[in-house]
Structure to design on (245 residues):
């Protein structure tokens, strides 16, 4: 399988993209300035440059690029994506989409060979939201993101797929995985200071640790707990309670 990489190039004032073949992509470095010879041009309206068998790269004098050029480059490299409610996704989805939900389950990473290529890492996870659940196949470098069941995540730049195994999403080269802020309602039945945290427990025995500074921002003195518990709304970011709202 032929692997190509899309790169953004700039002369200091304008930006374009170039498709790098596998041998070139492994030799050039981001941030370096190159003199490029014998390149090809894609369809005229696309503005994309192409590497050919005889394309040559030579390191040359540095060209400075400003932050506005970097922004334009990222806009060219990262394709647009649209947010779709997990309850409404279907096989008819076209283009790259973004979904968010709670990580309900995930399988161990395994190595898969595709069409005789080198083995690549694959992990299957299940994302859930309000009764709707979808399977996501996480490929390649997207598996570098640490995931934890029960937390809420956003997956961007996914491609829908219908196969003999059913409907699923596949990550793409542009996929970004981010943990979401989440507000949870916690019916506190008791609390106790443990080190730098206030540990709280609900009527079912579930426990949350709240940093003492967050706790004291909301309670100047120890609160009385009514029968049935005290209702708290906790904002959780990356698994840590950061605010009581």
């Amino acid at each position: 399988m032929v692997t190509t990489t899309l790169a953004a190039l700039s002369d200091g004032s304008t930006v374009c993209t170039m498709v790098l073949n596998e041998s070139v992509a492994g030799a050039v470095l981001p941030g370096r300035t190159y003199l490029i010879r014998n390149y090809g041009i894609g369809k005229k309206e696309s503005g994309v440059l192409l590497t050919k068998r005889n394309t040559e790269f030579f390191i040359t004098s540095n060209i400075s690029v400003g932050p506005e050029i970097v922004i334009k480059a990222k806009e060219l490299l990262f394709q647009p994506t649209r947010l779709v409610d997990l309850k409404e996704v279907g096989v008819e989805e076209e283009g790259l989409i973004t979904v968010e939900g709670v990580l309900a389950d995930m399988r161990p990473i395994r190595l898969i060979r595709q069409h005789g290529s080198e083995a690549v890492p694959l992990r299957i996870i299940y994302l859930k939201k309000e009764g709707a659940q979808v399977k996501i196949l996480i490929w390649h470098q997207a598996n570098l993101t640490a995931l934890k069941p029960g937390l809420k995540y956003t997956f961007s730049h996914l491609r829908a797929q219908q196969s003999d195994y059913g409907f699923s999403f596949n990550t793409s080269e542009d996929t970004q995985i981010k943990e979401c802020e989440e507000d949870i309602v916690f019916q506190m039945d008791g609390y106790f200071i443990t080190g730098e945290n206030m540990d709280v427990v609900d009527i079912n025995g579930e426990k949350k640790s709240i940093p003492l500074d967050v706790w004291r921002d909301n309670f100047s003195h120890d609160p009385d707990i009514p029968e049935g518990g005290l209702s708290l709304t906790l904002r959780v970011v990356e698994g840590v309670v950061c605010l009581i709202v």
